[in-house]
Amino acid sequence: MLGTLTLYAYAWTVNPSEVSIGRIGSDDVGSFVRTQGHVRRIVAVGGGGSQIELVDYSDFATITVFLSGKVARSIDFMGRIVPGCKLRVAGEVQEYGGELEVSVSDASMVKLLAGAQENRLGLDTLASNPQTFDGMEVLVGGGIGGMESAIDWDKTLIHSGGDSFWVEDPERSGTSGNADVFGRLLYNEGRGRFEIKVAGENDAIAPHPSVVPDSYSIVTIQELVSTPNEWDGRHVAVLDVETLAGEAIGTSFALDDAVDGERYYISCMIFGWDWLTDKRGMAEGTAAEFVGIWGYYSREAQWQVTSDEFTLRFL
Length: 315
Description:
This protein is mainly β. It has helices at residues 2-14, 69-74, 123-128, 221-226, 228-231; strands at 17-18, 32-44, 50-55, 62-67, 86-96, 99-104, 110-114, 137-160, 163-168, 179-188, 193-197, 204-207, 217-218, 235-259, 262-271, 287-297, 302-307, 312-314.
């Protein structure tokens, strides 16, 4: 009997039931299953563990996969488990916090089937289910169109005597000719630089000469460039500078494709790449594939695929 029980336990661990995500239910609690799907999101938990949400593209069913810290540390490709990659996992179905999850007890029970850059999605699928893929790395394809430089008009470059500095002016209060700039010096994590932010009651980009508001320190651009930490968080006034509105941040374009007689368009952006100086042989209608992160951009009020590097491949 002991031998029979041992064989049963062995079979239970090496022969899990193959089941799709959508078919995992409460009746499966305590069962050992194998399933697969694309990583939708990853949440770090205590002890170095992870909760990985998998989604099945066939019906968009989801399941959470739990990896303890010990298991996660034993997976040599853990760094490649990112939103958009495809996994096959085996583990015990458990109920945690009122939700079902698959708990993986050994690193060998996690297989990487495809990297995020192989996460090919039809434009129709993205357009009809945008929230499902939010934050995922996707591969999309279609004809290129609408190439244009992307300009952030909230940014103004000020310069004087060979020195220059960026100003963030959400109200776009810039003026032509020489100007005086009043604002607060802050570090912009996204751009990796200090900027003058024009956002307070007395802040402005005003025609020179202007009256300097009380409590503002008069500084030169050269001082801001050389010793920005000294002025960090303080209200500053930079006088008699030239201004240039707008900062080129990349190139926007669209990919379009026909699916079942309907045409779909997806907006795309490559940050830090200027198509006017680096055309790479592109032309309207060129067939291409593009890898990037799918997400919603409130400023543009639209979903986009974006990349911080040139990931276009022409077909």
